[in-house]
Amino acid sequence: MDYYGLTLPEVIGHNDDELGLNVHPENFQESEMQLLEDGVPVKERGKTRSRGRIREIMILKAPVYYTRNL
User: Fold this and answer.
1) Can you give the pTM of this predicted structure?
2) Contact 43/24 with Cβ under 8 angstroms?
3) Are 57 and 48 within 8 A, CB to CB?
4) What span, in angstroms and rounded, lies between the C-alpha atoms of 28 and 70?
5) Integer Cα distance of 10 and 2 in angstroms
6) How far does the chain reach from its first CA to its final CA, in angstroms?
7) Are 35 and 42 in contact (CB under 8 A)?
8) Cβ–Cβ < 8 Å for 41, 61
9) What angle do CA 12, 13, 14 make, to 5 degrees?
10) Residue-wise pLDDT tens for the chain (70 aa)?
């Protein structure tokens, strides 16, 4: 949140696309769908908006599985 200059109330309930952080959100949406369908981790480069500037970022996405032991 500090990196983007956002507060917790601004972030809660929103994803990065809704917050307008991604320069090309369609690229990230495609990789997210691939991850959900295949379960294969994704690594890619992208651009984000932070405090009025466009910055290069590396995106790493992997499935997280939660098992509840009873």
Assistant:
1) 0.63
2) no
3) yes
4) 36
5) 12
6) 35
7) yes
8) yes
9) 95
10) 898 889 999 999 998 888 888 888 887 888 888 888 999 999 999 899 888 899 999 989 898 888 887 6
